[in-house]
Design brief:
Number of strands: 10
Structural class: alpha/beta
Largest sheet: 5 strands, parallel
CATH architecture of one domain: 3-Layer(aba) Sandwich
Protein name: Sulfotransferase
Pfam families: Sulfotransfer_1
Strand order of the largest sheet: 3-5-2-6-7
Family: Belongs to the sulfotransferase 1 family.
Order of helices and strands: HHHHEEHEHHEEHEHHHHEHHEEEH
Keywords: Disulfide bond, Glycoprotein, Golgi apparatus, Membrane, Signal-anchor, Transferase, Transmembrane, Transmembrane helix
Number of helices: 15
Catalytic activity: alpha-D-glucosaminyl-[heparan sulfate](n) + 3'-phosphoadenylyl sulfate = 3-sulfo-alpha-D-glucosaminyl-[heparan sulfate](n) + adenosine 3',5'-bisphosphate + H(+)
Bound molecules: adenosine-3'-5'-diphosphate
Length: 345
Amino acid sequence: MLFKQQALLRQKLFVLGSLAIGSLLYLVARVGSLDRLQPLCPIDGQFGPRSQDEIALRALQFKRGLLHEFRKGNATKEQIRLHNLVQQLPKAIIIGVRKGGTRALLEMLNLHPAVVKASQEIHFFDNDENYAKGIEWYRKKMPFSYPHQITIEKSPAYFITEEVPERIYKMNSSIKLLIIVREPTTRAISDYTQVLEGKERKNKTYYKFEKLAIDPNTCEVNTKYKAVRTSIYTKHLERWLKYFPIEQFHIVDGDRLITEPLPELQLVEKFLNLPPRISQYNLYFNATRGFYCLRFNIVFNKCLAGSKGRIHPEVDTSVITKLRKFFHPFNQKFYQITGRTFNWP
Ligand code: A3P
């Protein structure tokens, strides 16, 4: 009898406990997503008519769920028509710089409910073969989105490819251009590390960074080495400025995006005339990865792939000093043109 009563009591306690834990989890989920449940502010400027912007975020989140399905390729033509989904040309492009943090920037901006990313690098403007396929081909590469949303793509090769500024200008002369930069020497070493990994995978031999970055005949910085050339930001930017005024560019600090992403993202939201929607809740530091990762909601979060955040090889300090000295005047010019100063050595 006593045993039966004890079993009954245990059962009751179990049910009560489960209810308490369930309620707690529900509350955590609600609080966690509170900032994403505010009504969506109107998006100023060119990104869409007000009436469409006034969709409540709750409805938008529901739609984002659907969008996710569409992106996975599960949408029928009927669904696309019913939900007014369209494939829009990008209103903003992350044009570079390679290894600056372009993937992190795109993924983090995609946390914004009014932003839809093109997942793949499309290489439309820098690849002659793709470019010859025409603008409709490019548009069809874009993800489905709602008319009030903006599409963003990133192809870091755009920044350094001669023909690209004119081609983008021909598509949309008022497009917004994002450039994410890192301290030039670190960026060059990151660039080298990526190529090195590819060579190692194919069992190919490769030179040390020092040998590539410094010309053995002159002992000067080797400006023919692509990783060095890409880090001369001002040279590339000057080509772009022949087509676009500086106001159409926004420079993102890639070093700060690693350590303190939110303020950098808030500056981008402002530049894109988007209401501030990305919050601290959406970003959490993952000690194992050593980087910030993304939180979409209580169940869905993700870190960038392991190919982002590689360990760089040790580089001779005299080579680093030489490179930093070399980049210094170009950096000064870059600060002057962009109006954004970095503490690069
Ligand atoms: P490293 O691999 O040198 O560390 P890109 O996407 O343009 O190729 O840039 C890659 C760089 O993004 C990485 O360079 C890494 O430092 C940086 N990065 C910035 N934020 C990151 C994040 N949250 N997770 C992983 N990498 C990030």
